[in-house]
Each structure stands twice: as C-alpha cells, then as structure tokens.
Amino acid sequence: MLTSAQESVIAATTPVVAEHIEAIAKRFYPLMFARYPEVKTLFNAAHQQSGGQPRALAGAVVAYVQLRHEPERLDDVLGIIVDKHVSLGIRPEHYPIVGECLMVAIGEELGEAVTEEVADAWSALYEELAGLLIEKEARRYHDFATQPGGWDGTREFRIVAKHPESAVITSFELAPVDGGAVAEHRPGQYIGLKLAIDGDTVHRHYSLSAAPNGRTYRISIKREEGGQVSRHFHDRLAVGDTLELLPPAGHLTLAAGDTPVMLISGGVGQTPMLPLARQALEEGRRVVYLHAARDGAVRAFADELEELRKAFPALLQVVTVYSQPRPEDSPDHVGRVDAALLADYAPRDAQYYTVGPADFMRCVDVALETLGVAASRRHHEFFGPAESLARVA
C-alpha cells in the first residue's frame, strides 16, 4: 500500500507522466528487449511497429492511475490485461523485468523531474499493480489447471484437421497429443499458442471458432500477406504437426439473460461469433448475425451458418454486407455498415457484440451509440493489443 506521501506525489505528477506516457512506452520496449532479449518472443513484432503495443501499455498505466480507487471499474480493466497475460503464459518472474525497464524509461524521458521521491512513488505504484495482476493470474491459472481437461503451463496439441473456409481463411482442428480430455472454454474466448518458426519461438492468440466439445479446439486463421505466423499456418503446417497451447482467455462472452443478441463482424472477426451464436440459439434467444466482407469469395462459414439457420429458423437471421461484391454474389446489402443499416435489423433491448478491424469496430460503436444503445449493451474485443484500455482512459 502506498504511503500518504507517495499518494500525494502520484497525484501531483500524474499529469506530467500521462502527457509523456506514449513516449515513455516507446522507450520502454526497445530498452527491455535489449536488456532481456528472452522476453521479446512474447510480443508481436507487427504490433510494435504499428505502435499498438506501446499505446496499449500507455493506456493501461493511465487507466490504472485513474481507476485504482474504483474497484468495480478497475476489475474490468485488469480483467482485460489478465486475459492477455494468461494467453501468453506471463508469470511472476516477468514483473521485475517490466518494473525495472519501465522506471528507466520514465527517468530517460522525464529527466531531472524524476527525483528520488518521484521514482520511489511510481515504483511503489507499479509494485501495487503488479501484485494485483499476479494474484489474479495465479487464481486463473489454478482454476483452469484443476478443472477436467485443464493443464498448467503449455500443453502439446496436434493438428488433426485442416479445412479451408474461404479464399483467405482456414480452420485448424487441434487435439491433445496425450490423448486426454480438453477443458471447456466459454464461447467467444481465444486461446494462446506457442510455436517455433525457423528456429525462433513466437506467441500468438486466436479466437476459438467452434463450441466446446471436450475433445478438440478449433482456430480459424486468415492468411495475411505480411503475417509471419498466419503464412506459416497456411503454407507450411499440415495435419500431424504439433504446437503448444496455453489456457483459453477473453472477456467477449455472452451476457446472461434471455434478451436478443446482435452479432456484428467484419472479415475474420467472425471467428468468435460462431460459438456465441450457437450458445445464444441453444438458450432460446433471438440472434441477428450481421457479417461484413469484401465479397463472397472471402466470406467464411456460409455453410455452417446455413446449418444453424435451418436448425433454428425462428430465432436466427443472417445478414450479409459486401463492400465489393462479384457478379455472382447476392449479399443482402452492398456498401458499409452504418447506423441506418443497423437500425433496420437491431432488435429491441438487444446485447450487441462487435469484432473486426479496429476502424470497423469504432464505426459500429459510434453507430450504435447514435441509435441510443447504452454502453453496457455494447461489447467488443480487439485482436492484438488491448486498445480498449485507451477507451477506458
């Protein structure tokens, strides 16, 4: 717990730190990778280059300072961080590395303004945050490891099926090499994976695109031309190859109740929506499934959705929106998803879930807000760094 003097220092210096926090974060990562190159494999190089990872760290620090005395809101923010950390296998021994490098980065950026008193206060604040995260992560790891089919650390899985879903998306079905049971996940969650590519270890996480079945997990990956891991999956991995999995995580899960659900996805953002739709339908809830894609060639899971529609004809409505349809395509709409289009399909008092490219999600969120949908009924999850933290801040 911070002393009253340290609390005063934090309050006095937060505006300056917040003003420079993105610059601090940009210094932090190169510094940490130089001092501790072994942790570099935990981070996506593309997110470093785009600035997404530094922005996420900056948002997390500012959000924690602002919300640390509001337990309910703070739990939501920390929950997003814990989800990301669990999918990467972050452990207590990683926190001193981050703390050391973060304080050096603060000192380098702010110079003489970082007195011994200021450094002590911000170090204490970091220790407080680290302690909370370590406690929450330990509980999550324990709960998962002790449930049927769970494990601690990583577990080796084998690709048992590889199925193309569209011109750019392929599904991979994964079964444990040890032949044991597979712990259930909550529909909408993602899973972390660890694999070696040309001698280098890389970590990624992908949405689980099928409902839990106790035997396998399914991930569905879009081939990105500049994506090291996605190209490796599409071009080099085959049935029989193995990789390591970490526990499922993620907060994009179905809110309890019997209200309608509207699932709004763009591109490969459709992957977590399939298990969410199935869960809602099996609970007897009305589902509007709106998917935006470039054209019919890249749209995935059409057959799977048609099977769901036939199984739940009175509950499921599927809506397609293509931005550049081919002559043979017949989408329900051509163009972009906006407030006017959403208004035509939005069920009264629904829960709304949005996943897709960041700009797509921001546009949908603004449109839903324009339609009067309360923030408590708008749910989303970013692929990659937790940019949503910046929204909280």
List keywords for this structure.
alpha/beta, 20% strand, 393 residues, disordered C terminus, 6-stranded antiparallel β-sheet, 6-stranded parallel β-sheet
Question: How would you describe this protein?
Answer:
It is a single chain. With 393 residues, the chain is an alpha/beta fold. The protein is built from twelve helices and twelve strands. The chain has helices at 4-35, 45-50, 52-67, 71-88, 95-110, 116-145, 228-235, 273-282, 302-311, 339-345, 358-370, 388-392; strands at residues 155-164, 169-176, 190-197, 200-207, 217-222, 242-249, 261-266, 287-293, 316-322, 333-334, 351-355, 378-380. The strands form two sheets. It has a six-stranded antiparallel sheet. Helix 1 packs across helix 6 (116-145). The protein starts with a helix and ends with a helix. One of its GO terms (molecular function) is nitric oxide dioxygenase NAD(P)H activity. Keywords: Detoxification, Heme, Iron, Metal-binding, NAD, NADP, Oxidoreductase, Oxygen transport, Transport. Residues 1-138 form the Globin domain.
Give the spatial strand order of the biggest sheet. 4-3-6-1-2-5
Q: Based on CA inertia axes, which overall geometry fits?
A: globular
Helix content: 40-55%
- Poorly predicted tracts of residues: 388-393
Tell me the strand percentage band. 15-25%
Order of helices and strands: HHHHHHEEEEEHEEHEHEEHEHEH
Structural class: alpha/beta
- Intertermini distance: 23 Å
Q: Estimate the mean pLDDT confidence.
A: 91
In DSSP terms (H or I, runs of 4 or more residues), the helix count works out at: 12
Number of strands: 12
What's the main sheet like? 6 strands, antiparallel
* CA gyration radius, whole angstroms: 22 Å
